[in-house]
């Protein structure tokens, strides 16, 4: 079963806003050769999540993990993402769609952010 990964970000009007997410995507592609890794957005930028999933399904993916690259779980992740996931599952019934928790709530990510803050003091 072909697996793939989608990084799900909010999106912004300024194209430069996406640069850190693009670097994350590119780094993951290097770490996960043979696993498609794409970046998708909730709004203001393309591709949107449904289109990114459709592209991966067209490429043969049957097991897709979506990682919200949000620091916390606000309205977009509590309301918008579950609705999008439901619509995606209905559109692609043979595909396993797993939605991870927000990246910023992971203990290891929080520890890395804390380390950065401590290093910033020096």
From TrEMBL:
Stated name of the protein: CbiX/SirB N-terminal domain-containing protein
Arranged from A to Z, the UniProt key words for this protein are: Lyase, Metal-binding
Q: Where are the transmembrane segments?
A: none
Reading the lineage from the top rank, the first entry is: Bacteria
- State the InterPro entries in the record: CbiX-like (IPR002762), Sirohydro_Cobaltochel/CbiX (IPR050963)
- Please name the taxonomic classification of the source: Bacteria, Pseudomonadati, Pseudomonadota, Betaproteobacteria, Burkholderiales
Gene3D superfamilies in the record: 3.40.50.1400
Pfam families membership: CbiX
